[in-house]
């Protein structure tokens, strides 16, 4: 077991900026439950899990028991919590490790949201209660090997075969796929019944035990090592007619789910940033150079102050977007503002913290390099910086540059 120089603790930075005062009692309760879970279940083992590329499947039903899986969904055993409460849970889980916020996002914001938004009543009853409990796991297959930023160019197809469907193609970087019981697979349908010109993107529920479905964990990752991402091969996967998600037509289907996941990232990345800031602050008070703590030096205090300001700005932005979401007024461009800002600033905070920690900052005695590595993945998935810049640019100019 790794012996750490830094032990995560309850934030002390809140004494400077009373963010808790902006939350309801119910929101604070969700946050505290998620913080306890992270501190008791994840933090004691995460450095070893990252080192050994190990994902603790035994925590999945425990997350379900806490109500964290699909917690924004109403009914079907889900908690029906508010958007801010969900964001705060993402914040606390990612303060431990991005991999665990990613799990909650893939399970709840992607797979479960796809079924809840677009599924038939029978599909919802079949899958959602077990997924909310963590008894069943789902994944979301959109990204393909040639790239993820142009889903309209996907090559995975679904063709009619009698009364059913046959899916063929490949997906890549699909979280949880090798652990999943059901995969939400997006494919182009070549049939005059679907979309202009006979081609449209539709979603399908694929039990992973179906012949022809293969999920293989991607090796050699230097990021998200305590998590699972996979390649999926679809070799003439035969499905019944009712495998299609009836409410999802075109790319608005997967995009509606991606926006749910992007919203959680806005909060989650600030959790990773807060964890790094806490590590730097703690070490600045105990590491002494030239006869005094480095926290007494002006340059170190300037770094801490700048990082603190960015964390609080990011938190306030996340809260504003959460309140908009609760009113049903949150737009895709606003989500892009939050995702772009949170991840970009979290990475910069990780880099600045590493400089405060000096040589020790590259070791797993501190969580900072692990967060920095993970955030490189978070920066890429659910839309790269460049994609979000173009979404914002389109909103500002009215002109599409992609």
UniProtKB/TrEMBL annotation:
It holds the Pfam family Acyl-CoA_dh_N. Residues 24-135 form the Acyl-CoA dehydrogenase/oxidase N-terminal domain. The keyword rRNA processing does not apply. PROSITE patterns: ACYL_COA_DH_1. One of its GO terms (biological process) is fatty-acyl-CoA biosynthetic process. Residues 256-396 form the Acyl-CoA dehydrogenase/oxidase C-terminal domain. Keywords: FAD, Flavoprotein, Oxidoreductase, Transit peptide. Residues 139-237 form the Acyl-CoA oxidase/dehydrogenase middle domain. It catalyses: glutaryl-CoA + oxidized [electron-transfer flavoprotein] + 2 H(+) = (2E)-butenoyl-CoA + reduced [electron-transfer flavoprotein] + CO2. Its cofactor is FAD. It comes from the Bacteria. InterPro entries: Acyl-CoA_DH_CS, Acyl-CoA_Oxase/DH_mid-dom, Acyl-CoA_Oxase/DH_mid-dom_sf, AcylCo_DH-like_C, AcylCo_DH/oxidase_C, AcylCoA_DH/ox_N, AcylCoA_DH/ox_N_sf, AcylCoA_DH/oxidase_NM_dom_sf. Its EC number is 1.3.8.6. Pathway: Amino-acid metabolism; tryptophan metabolism; Amino-acid metabolism; lysine degradation. GO terms for molecular function: fatty-acyl-CoA binding; flavin adenine dinucleotide binding; glutaryl-CoA dehydrogenase activity. It is an enzyme of class 1 (oxidoreductase). Belongs to the acyl-CoA dehydrogenase family. This is glutaryl-CoA dehydrogenase (ETF).
């Amino acid at each position: 077991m790794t012996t750490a120089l830094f032990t995560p603790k309850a934030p002390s930075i809140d004494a400077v900026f009373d963010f808790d005062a902006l939350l309801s009692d119910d929101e604070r309760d969700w946050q505290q439950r998620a913080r306890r879970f992270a501190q008791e279940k994840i933090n004691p083992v995460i450095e070893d899990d990252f080192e050994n590329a190990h994902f603790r499947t035994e925590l999945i039903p425990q997350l379900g028991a806490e109500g964290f899986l699909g917690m924004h969904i109403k009914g079907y055993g889900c908690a029906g919590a508010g958007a801010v409460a969900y964001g705060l849970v993402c914040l606390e889980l990612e303060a431990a490790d991005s991999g665990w916020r990613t799990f909650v996002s893939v399970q709840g914001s992607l797979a479960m949201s796809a079924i809840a938004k677009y599924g038939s009543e029978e599909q919802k009853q079949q899958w959602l209660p077990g997924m909310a409990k963590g008894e069943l796991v789902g994944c979301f297959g959109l990204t393909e090997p040639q790239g993820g930023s142009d889903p309209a160019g996907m090559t995975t197809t679904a063709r009619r075969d009698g009364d059913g469907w046959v899916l063929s193609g490949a997906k890549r970087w699909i979280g949880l796929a090798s652990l999943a019981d059901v995969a939400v697979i997006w494919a182009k349908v070549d049939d005059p019944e679907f979309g202009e010109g006979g081609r449209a993107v539709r979603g399908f529920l694929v039990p992973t035990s179906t012949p022809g479905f293969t999920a293989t964990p991607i090796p050699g990752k230097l990021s998200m090592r305590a998590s699972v991402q996979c390649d999926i091969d679809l070799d003439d996967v035969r499905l019944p007619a009712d495998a299609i998600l009836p409410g999802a037509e075109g790319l608005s289907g997967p995009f509606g789910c991606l926006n749910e996941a992007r919203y959680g990232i806005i909060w989650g990345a600030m959790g990773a940033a807060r964890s790094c800031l806490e590590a730097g602050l703690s070490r600045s008070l105990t590491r002494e150079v030239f006869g005094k703590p480095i926290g007494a030096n002006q340059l170190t205090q300037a770094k801490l102050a700048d990082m603190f300001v960015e964390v609080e700005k990011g938190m306030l932005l996340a809260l504003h977007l959460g309140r908009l979401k609760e009113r049903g007024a949150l737009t895709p461009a606003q989500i892009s503002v939050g995702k772009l800002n949170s991840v970009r600033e979290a990475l910069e905070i990780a880099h600045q913290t590493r400089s405060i920690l000096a040589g020790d900052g590259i070791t797993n005695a501190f969580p900072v390099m692990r967060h920095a590595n993970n955030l490189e993945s978070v920066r890429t998935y659910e839309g790269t910086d460049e994609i979000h810049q173009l979404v914002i640019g389109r909103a500002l100019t009215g002109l599409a540059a992609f």
